[in-house]
Amino acid sequence: MERPNAWKKYPEGKAQKKVMDFAEGYRRFLSECKTERECTAYFVKEAKKAGFRDLDEVIAAGKKLKPGDKVYRVNRGKALAAFVIGKEPIENGINILGAHIDSPRMDLKQNPLYENTDMVLLDTHYYGGIKKYQWVTLPLALHGVVAKKDGTTVTVNIGEKPDDPVFGVSDLLIHLAANQMDKKGAKVVEGEQLDVLVGSLPLYKKDDDEKKKKQKKDLVKRNILRILKENYDIEEEDFLSAEIEVVPAGAARDYGFDRSMIMGHGHDDRVCAYPSFLALAAAKPGKRTYAALLVDKEEIGSVGATGMQSRFFENTVAELVALTGEYSELYVRRALTNCKALSSDVSAAFDPNYPDVSEKKNAAYFGRGLVFNKYTGARGKSGSNDASAEYMGELRKILDDADVSYQTSELGKVDQGGGGTIAYILGNYGMLVIDSGVAVLNMHAPWEIISKVDLYEAYRGYIAFLEKA
């Protein structure tokens, strides 16, 4: 069953302009928000514009919530949940769009700065599943925060402005790479070789004589520390309490002569988080409560206080139960079980350069709309969520009635590989959940690619789900 190309619904003119305009907003978001902290701050700002209130402020004020109210809650600056309260009791369930806002990258180690042969580097540890050789010889930027002992934080964003310096990981020149080229792909560049070069200029004072210059050690490192102190008020010790991510430098760009695609860092999974939040803000309030749940740490197993495996969402639902009626632990359990969710996560797009890893009848294609993965996991569906046939049938009707283009997919051939999402964690509550998102080329590479029309159909599909499920 070949699905039609969604672009056919949007001929040149006003119809196509809607798709392009929506994608342009997303392209700007993707360019500005390269970390989970930056994404959270962006969505909080947009939430306030759309009339959402901080749930913790509502709780502190002792106020109740009524149908149509909009609230959000931030989880430690790196994740958030936003809700539109429905007419029915929370215990009847919530329609949830759940996505993640972390992406594969490199993180600075806690003691990262060192000098070697008059060059200064930052030691890194990669985050999430990456092909390490893809991260060399690229212009890289530093994003994050440094928390100082006095309780203040310094925001770091270096490498994005036209006059900013950029950084990078070197690679072995081809003339000396005979042994390297004989290695398997996983070993061509190894994790401890992903150190970022940040300087090579020694610190000399005008009044230093030659004897003093020779006696001083790590002069390049001293110069880098001087720059960090003067420009950012950062000491070397401050790296101990820093979260600094190394990401590709530069803006997301239109891709292709026809500008039908976007190339950028972090499509997985911000290409689903962005339309999820905008769909929540645009959906008309209805009987059921709606939610957009944007979480951290999915790329490393959804662990920790800001990942989906934390109790953040469960505890927030408990607060909603208390603020909309009579509180009961039983009502909270009922609410979680009665939820319907789309785990809004990306799928692997069919790549004509590598057709052998996909089974064409069950692959996702650019331009054919929102992608449903009934099950994920690896090999014999191990570690997957496996949505029910009845739930898939309900979603088909919702999307067909709304004229939303969609397709179904698996993540490659059986036994080829596999992957996971937050779907199984939501499923642990007993709720209905299925993976649905946007197809991505180059997934987990520094620069990924998506189709603009797939992004727009995801947005339309998410609205239809919230209002009709």
How would you describe what is shown here?
There is one protein chain. It contains 13 helices and 22 strands. The chain has 469 residues and is α/β, with parallel strands linked by helices. The chain folds into 2 domains: 6-103 and 265-468, Zn peptidases (Aminopeptidase); 105-248, Aminopeptidase i, Domain 2 (Roll), CATH 2.30.250.10. The protein has a 9-stranded mixed beta sheet, sandwiched between helices. A 6-stranded antiparallel beta sheet has the order 8-7-10-5-6-9. Strands 11-12-22-21-15 form a 5-stranded mixed beta sheet. Helix 8 (267-282) crosses helix 13 (452-468) and helix 9 packs across helix 10. The chain is globular, with a radius of gyration of 24 Å. The two termini are 25 Å apart.
